[in-house]
Amino acid sequence: MIDLHSHTNQSDGSATPEELIRDASALGLEALGITDHDTLSGYDLARPYADAAGLELICGIELSTRIQPEVKTNGKRRSSIHLLGYFPETAPSASFRDWLTEQQNARRRRNEALIAKLNSLGVEITLEEVQELGRNLTGRPHFAQVLLKKGYVKNLQEAFDVYLADHAKAAVEREEPSLVEGIHHIREAGGLPVLAHPLRLEEAADEGQFRTLVRSLVEEGLQGLEVYYSEHTPAMTAMFHGMAQEFSLLATGGSDYHGTNKPHIALGTGKGQNLNVPYAVLASMKERARQA
Ligand code: AMP
Ligand code: FE
Ligand code: FE
Ligand code: ZN
Predict the structure, then answer these.
(1) pTM as predicted
(2) Ligand 1, from 62, 107, 140: best to mutate by most atoms within 8 Å of Cβ?
(3) Ligand 1 atom closest to residue 139's alpha carbon, by position in its atom list
(4) pLDDT tens track for 208-248
């Protein structure tokens, strides 16, 4: 069994890179992919622990992208689409790392604007308080935790519903790359772009619409679909698997482990033991990466 989708506390997971490697080894995983949001630092920090433990560690990333940043429906932007990038054969290029740094700067600017907006709404929180939780990848979930701790909301979901969600009171648009731009950057960096958890896409509700989307992304260089995923029903898995075959895409899989931040999802085995991704998936990815 392998797991190609996991998060450390360098993004929004709860486990340190060292703990994640220890847990993956204890579970007997044959390989682990670390796919933190918009950062490689969890992978970088985990590398020596994986080597020491003899665990095969795959470098990955999960980018937040917009399908068509300029298009709005009823004045609303679509929610962001997650794009995985895997580097099973060669390390990501230096220019890719530079590009990620730019994305992190955009996040920092968004966070500053979000604080200003919350303050103007009478919510007394500071960037320092939020960054204490989020450190180098402070995101809205950390804002939600501070709002809860300070009694502005009764639970984390209310923090999103009232203040933080895309169209809530304090919403601030972050400059995110387009999905196609993300695909191109991962390819140029020597990686494999894979559409993460396709069930979350509006298009996935309709097989025909989903096919149209996948076809256009394949033309841009998409290499895979995350077919095996904790939140996929057997019917969804079958549909995504068929689509991957139709377009000769890799069918990848992973749990999206976030530790205690998503306690219902277990490393490797997913939700209620619904995952068991075989090593053959990774073998195909390596082959594809060598050809690319
Ligand atoms: P950020 O990357 O800082 O914009 O935060 C995005 C994260 O916030 C997502 O990965 C979700 O975990 C969470 N999130 C965004 N919108 C919502 C929402 N409406 N309800 C609950 N969680 C949300
Ligand atoms: Fe996450
Ligand atoms: Fe995701
Ligand atoms: Zn994820």
Answers:
(1) 0.91
(2) 140
(3) 3
(4) 999 999 999 999 999 999 999 999 999 999 999 999 999 99
